[in-house]
Design brief:
The protein has 273 residues and is an alpha/beta fold. The protein has eleven helices and five strands.
């Protein structure tokens, strides 16, 4: 038999070599394959930072916060510089109100014949020590009267306040005006309508305070306002912006601080009042 030719074997080798060769994929094909396979484009993964860099990260955050605070503070400083500087003394205040608490009161009815006679348990008079306290207060108020020039003294309708106001009014040469709303804050009358309570009449109070002898003009002002703050606003409105002196109770000061919602209300304790 004739020997087999090697041509067929060479052809087979060439076919195998061609099958083993693969076409290099295009860049566009890679992107499309990635999109089909994952649905998202390949994203570069952030390198994982070692644990030693955490402190540096915290420090960087703190530095950024401090820079922000400084920038805000600088902006506020710039705004404050743009604002016109106002001197408090140059500002014209519409009205100034000075609060005076009543003098020491009696604790037992046996201490005061007038209190026994009225039979108003909630309405005591002042003691002898209280009368001296009121006169001392009047001496301290004299320089304020020269500086601020009070137009009158507004007082609570309760006897202890009217007595105190009349003693001060004699020294300052001021009229006294009774306004009911200043007395409604007391513990005894807090939950009652003071405008419908049986209080001392104007004539009774004038005689008790010796207004004819002292020359103090004692009158009553019609006001339906309930709280001390509203009563003082009413009084200021009636005085048309003049400075006034108000004689009230411990609760008067407390309610004024609460109603105005001012910062000193948090700094003043009940014991200090």
């Amino acid at each position: 038999m004739p020997p087999l030719s090697s041509a067929g074997g060479e052809k087979r080798k060439e076919k195998k070599a061609k099958g083993s060769k693969k076409k290099a994929p295009n860049k566009g094909d890679e992107k499309s394959s990635n999109v089909v396979a994952t649905g998202k484009k390949n994203r570069k993964k952030k390198p994982i930072k070692p644990a030693d860099d955490k402190q540096q990260q915290q420090q960087q955050k703190q530095q950024k916060k401090s820079k922000r605070k400084k920038s805000k503070q600088n902006q506020l400083n710039q705004l404050n510089q743009l604002k016109p500087k106002v001197n408090v003394d140059d500002v014209k205040v519409a009205c100034k109100v000075f609060i005076l608490r009543h003098a020491e009161r009696c604790e037992n009815m046996d201490e005061s014949e007038f209190w026994k006679k009225t039979e108003r348990v909630f309405d005591p008079t002042i003691t002898e020590k209280g009368a001296t306290q009121a006169s001392v207060a009047a001496t301290h108020l004299l320089p304020l009267q020269k500086e601020h020039k009070f137009s009158c003294i507004y007082t609570s309708p309760l006897v202890r306040c009217v007595e105190t106001a009349c003693i001060v009014a004699k020294e300052l040469n001021l009229p006294v005006r009774i306004i009911n709303g200043l007395g409604g804050c007391t513990r005894a009358l807090r939950n009652k309508d003071i405008n419908h309570m049986e209080l001392g009449t104007l004539k009774e109070l004038q005689e008790h305070c010796n207004c004819d002898e002292t020359g103090v003009q004692l009158t009553r002002v019609d006001s339906q306002e309930g709280t001390p703050f509203e009563s003082i606003l009413d009084a200021v409105t009636m005085e048309l912006g003049h400075n006034v002196l108000v004689c009230g109770h411990r609760e008067t000061v407390r309610q004024l601080l609460v109603d105005t919602e001012d910062e000193p209300s948090a700094k003043v304790s009940r014991k200090q009042i």
